[in-house]
């Protein structure tokens, strides 16, 4: 196949940052996606509906003229989140979920939840009102091997929460392991997962190809080839529980090429093309439309997008870097080729 037309896709897990950084990255996402679930891990985090509405306005103001891109907002759960915030969020029509960051698990998670029991009353209200919980699924115990933290989170936190709140709708974000794929497949209704392009296209060897590769470092960290194969099988199956979430997470070059480099891979410049590569490699291009453009909308109870995007099998060179305010941003595949291209 050399050309593929799909319904216009959505990104169900995206970091847009704020200010100059927002203005630098937003055009990439807005060029491909109709909507995106915008993560709330700003500094300080977006914890109230009022803050989310103000952030949404800043995103809309930063859009290229004529763009109809719609940001779908989320709130950052903390130990102190008030259950009444769930009602405010729901009533706003603009907030589509609450994000659980276990405190210390990832970038800007220090205000996250220290113990899931502390947000029990919030989760109960979310289950009642049908508000989605988005989860960064890793345990934070420093004694647990970093490659095991996602798999351990399932038994320690995720499975019990899903059982305690049988009506809570949960997205297990950016899954990376065979265990996560199996868990989602076997879970009750109302449980789904997003999958990133990097976890479909690379295994942990990519962290160490010829030396240490800070631009391949994200959390959850890349896993084994067996895990990657399980993710490819999940997307190839067409199972509607799995959908697109790039987790595109821009960081200035100097903060990644550093003594202690930040976690996060930037993929918004070539998101749908990178997924096309992964689906082609899995022999499953016919499943890209469901994964990218239908399963997520169905899970979130939102309408499908009008319009289409056409991809052609035509390679192009990814720049070595993009401008990122007064800094530089090194994208996934920097200085290399991407095999598919969106027809403009
Ligand atoms: C994300 C970021 O930079 O905000 N980083 C990452 O490695 N994925 C945070 C996150 O999604 O965990
Ligand atoms: Zn995360
Ligand atoms: Zn993320």
- What's the pLDDT, averaged over the residues? 98
Number of helices: 12
What's the CATH H-level superfamily name? Metal-dependent hydrolases
Order of helices and strands: EEHEHEHEHEHEHEHHEHHHHEEEE
The description of the largest β-sheet is: 8 strands, parallel
Total E-strand runs: 13
What would the principal axes of the Cα set say about the shape?
globular
In CATH, the topology is named TIM Barrel
**Fraction of helical residues:** 25-40%
Low-confidence stretches: none
Bound molecules: N-carbamoyl-L-aspartate, zinc ion
CATH class: Alpha Beta
Q: What structural class do the secondary elements suggest? A: alpha/beta
Based on the coordinates given, report the CATH architecture.
Alpha-Beta Barrel
Architecture overview:
This protein has helices at residues 19-32, 49-62, 84-92, 120-129, 149-164, 178-186, 197-201, 225-236, 253-256, 271-281, 288-293, 295-300, and strands spanning 3-7, 11-14, 35-38, 70-76, 95-100, 132-135, 170-172, 191-195, 242-244, 308-317, 322-324, 327-329, 337-342. With 344 residues, it is an alpha/beta fold. The protein has a single domain (3-342), classed as Metal-dependent hydrolases (TIM Barrel). The protein has an 8-stranded parallel beta sheet with strand order 2-3-4-5-6-7-8-9. Helix 2 (49-62) links the parallel strand 3 (35-38) and strand 4. Helix 3 (84-92) runs parallel beside helix 4. The chain binds N-carbamoyl-L-aspartate and zinc ion (2 copies). One zinc ion binds at residues 13, 15, 39, 247, 249.
